């Protein structure tokens, strides 16, 4: 009972902190805009609580909140421990998604850079001037600031532009700059047409990006199926509770239930990991 009371007090304190910070920010905005703050009529609504939590709490911390809720419902500390253990795993998934989005954004910026550079060269500009103008456009902002600065410095002060581009290609998602460096080297050493090579490079990068997008769309169904199957035990618990079987009491307060819970959690984790590993392997190939 003391554990449940402590958990309830922690929930109330967290909600008060979230709403208090949000109300303070809202009051500051209204003071700056010189408009009266709206009257509080809905009180401690769930909508306000969720909206405040989204702005303050990272997604992985909702695993802890879910574990706390189940701990209160099941009168056991085990779900809270499981929720706390899931926080770093969910954080790792979030960071992996962010890194993947950053790589895709950088790859799209490299493709746009090739197209812009080809257009500038076709318009009659010198390669160095064209590179400086293309790197200054908004389409190339997906490339890191350090990589763009190195290439700009090489183009402005007569440095080795291909070397700077190859160095910038080490950034995740910027591998297409290796092709740009090769086109630049061939154009300078052999006098070949830089614009034609850049246009072919842009077409190849766009084709590769489209192939990845198509493959990802084809694998989305398999990934969604794996996640849906992983959520079936939760549906089973809800159905058991609706029928009055009290599955949380059986799982959390009996020896057989704890054994089934441990075995089921291990099998669930291994199955989900294996299914997603197959999907990631197919996507990587």
UniProtKB/TrEMBL annotation:
Compartments where found: Cell membrane
Main location: membrane
Membrane topology of the entry: Multi-pass membrane protein
Entry's transmembrane regions: 64-90, 226-245, 251-276
Organism: Streptomyces alfalfae
Protein name from the UniProt record: Type II secretion system protein GspF domain-containing protein
Coiled-coil spans in chain: 198-225
Domain called Type II secretion system protein GspF: residue spans: 115-239
Database matches in Pfam families: T2SSF
Keyword Cell membrane recorded: yes
InterPro entries in alphabetical order: T2SS_GspF_dom
Keywords per UniProt: Cell membrane, Coiled coil, Membrane, Transmembrane, Transmembrane helix
């Amino acid at each position: 009972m003391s554990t449940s009371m402590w958990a309830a007090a922690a929930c109330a304190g967290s909600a008060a902190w979230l709403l208090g910070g949000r109300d303070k920010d809202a009051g500051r905005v209204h003071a700056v805009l010189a408009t009266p703050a709206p009257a509080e009529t809905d009180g401690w609504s769930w909508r306000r609580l969720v909206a405040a939590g989204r702005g303050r709490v990272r997604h992985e911390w909702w695993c802890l909140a879910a574990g706390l809720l189940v701990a209160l419902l099941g009168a056991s500390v085990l779900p809270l421990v499981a929720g706390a253990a899931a926080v770093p795993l969910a954080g790792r998934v979030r960071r992996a998604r962010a890194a993947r989005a950053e790589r895709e954004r950088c790859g799209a910026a490299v493709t746009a850079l090739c197209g812009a550079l080809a257009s500038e060269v076709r318009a009659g500009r010198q390669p160095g001037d064209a590179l400086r103008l293309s790197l200054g456009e908004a389409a190339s902002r997906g490339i890191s600031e350090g990589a763009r600065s190195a290439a700009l410095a090489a183009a402005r002060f007569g440095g080795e532009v291909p070397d700077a581009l190859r160095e910038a290609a080490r950034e995740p998602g910027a591998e297409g700059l290796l092709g740009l460096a090769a086109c630049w080297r061939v154009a300078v050493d052999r006098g070949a047409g830089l614009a034609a090579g850049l246009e072919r490079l842009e077409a190849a990068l766009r084709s590769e990006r489209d192939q990845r997008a198509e493959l990802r769309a084809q694998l989305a169904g398999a990934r969604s199926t794996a996640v849906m199957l992983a959520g079936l035990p939760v549906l089973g618990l809800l159905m058991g509770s609706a029928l009055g079987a009290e599955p949380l009491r059986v799982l959390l307060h009996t020896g057989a239930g704890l054994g089934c819970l441990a075995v089921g959690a291990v099998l669930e984790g291994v199955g989900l990991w294996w299914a997603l590993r197959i999907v990631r392997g197919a996507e990587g190939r």
